Amino acid sequence: MIKRKELCKEIPELTIAHDIRVRFNETDPLGIVWHGYYITYFEDGREAFGRQHGISYLDVQANGYTTPIVKSSCEHKLSLRYGDVARIETTFVDTPAAKMIFRYKIYDNDNQVVCSGETVQVFLDSNGDLSLSLPPFFEAWKRKCGLIE
Fold this sequence. Notes:
The chain is of the alpha+beta class and 149 residues long. It has helices at 37-53, 57-62, 136-144, and strands spanning 9-21, 69-76, 85-94, 99-107, 113-122. The chain has a five-stranded antiparallel sheet, covered by helices on one side. It is elongated and about 50 Å long.
């Protein structure tokens, strides 16, 4: 029996790295990044991935869809501080379902993993209805990437 998790696999070739600098307003009184901003950093990585690969929020919207996040997870391992430059690695996770899954690793200046996580997005059409099959533009993108024939 194949488990659903086994149908999802990271595609290392579809990984991008994006640097961010921690801003003062993202830190608490101790100068440590507040935990909620790591989800924002995931979004920075996801937007960079989308721009590079032609599936940005604007590309999705131009095709008549939106992609709300329905699940997110975040594991904190170390802290970032004001002024740090962090690298966000965003990897596309292939799945046969009509959704987009991304995994993230955030690294500090010493190349240590600070945080890791995952987001799951679904496709809603222009009426706000859930798409149960791959939207044509996304199917074409997956075909171009060699993920489907």
